[in-house]
Amino acid sequence: MNTVIAFIFMFGLLVFIHEFGHLIFAKRAGMLVREFAIGFGPKIFPFVKNETLYTIRLLPIGGYVRVAGEDPEIVDINPGQHVGLEFNEAGKVTRIIINNKSKHPYTRIVEVERADLDHDLVIEGYEPNEYDEKLIFPVDRNAMYVMDERETQIAPYDRQFASKTKSQRAMQLFAGPMMNFLLAIVLFFILGMLQGVPAETAKVSNIQAGSPAAAAGLKDGDEIVKVGTKDIANWTELQQAIQAHPKEELDLIAIRDGKTMQLQVVPAEKEIEGKKIGRIGVEPATEKSVMKTIKYGFQETYGTTKLIVTNIGMLVTGQYSLDMLSGPVGIYDVTDKVVQDGFTTFLKWTAMLSINLGIVNLLPLPALDGGRLLFVGIEAVRGKPMDPQKEGIVHFVGFALIMLLMIVVTWNDIQRLFM
Description:
Largest sheet: 5 strands, mixed, barrel
Shape: elongated
Helix content: 40-55%
Number of domains: 3
Number of strands: 18
Strand content: 25-35%
Distance between the termini: 23 Å
Strand order of the largest sheet: 3-4-7-6-5
Structural class: alpha+beta
């Protein structure tokens, strides 16, 4: 149950923060945000606030912000179509009844000749069967379509995604991944405040009972300055030196209370992803400082970003196979192990996943934020936008391929669970 709660919280936080970035910058640019959704599939919990429908949906595999103009508009009004109109006190149309007009006895029925709800905001037409006088009805900017008794706000062109400047559109697309990086910085900052940040030198702590470090005589607070012939300046260099020599006796020079000592240690061997590395059973000593913790948040985010980008590059070049990828099932399995290691480990795992989500969404692939940013860039180079229908097809195909990849990855995750 702890794992289920942790997974739902983690997934909800990562998706919420990502989509919240898209939402905020869409609204700042004056775009009409039709829906803010966490998950896909049937709605579980919907409510409307400030023009936007907020929903939690059944399938926890992502989320989205739907902005007017990104997809074909929901309702078309064509010449010859009969619609019902309702008006405000200023004489402007506030509701356009598309069907079930008998349920709205006080509407004015009009046979449409022309409807422009993008630019002119007008409906022109005639009383049914009376064609001697054309009627022109101005439409309120916040008017609603009513179809199947469900209201949908119209979107004048200046409220649509395509009407905004290239920089506004690019920022709205980039805001989601940006928020994931900011979340990681905050989580690493919280982690640093809770457990302290690693000391700048190679000081060790939490010596595990029965470990090679304990057998060698190391104690909490010892600073290792040399491994074999290699001078050690920080924890990273110590890790690298130890990991490179599993089951080999190493000479250590350590400083304890200002005195220099010489010790010998034999790192235990541990296999990770097919590679054998050395471990001695120590953790880095930590210290608490607000300024160092802020720096730690940025450093850890940068280091994790660099590592993930490197791994993606190895995947693209064929050095890694698709078996290295994990979907929701694999992430849940790892989360189960992480939760058992404690809250701080869970925080670090969440920060790493947040960075991963940000990077993956910036990849220049159709249907992802990076793919859509690529189209904005192409528009900037060409001096004119791509055909919306062609771009829509590209994103649809890309989304289908991503869903297919998700199925393959999930199947691999399930198989690994039973191996």
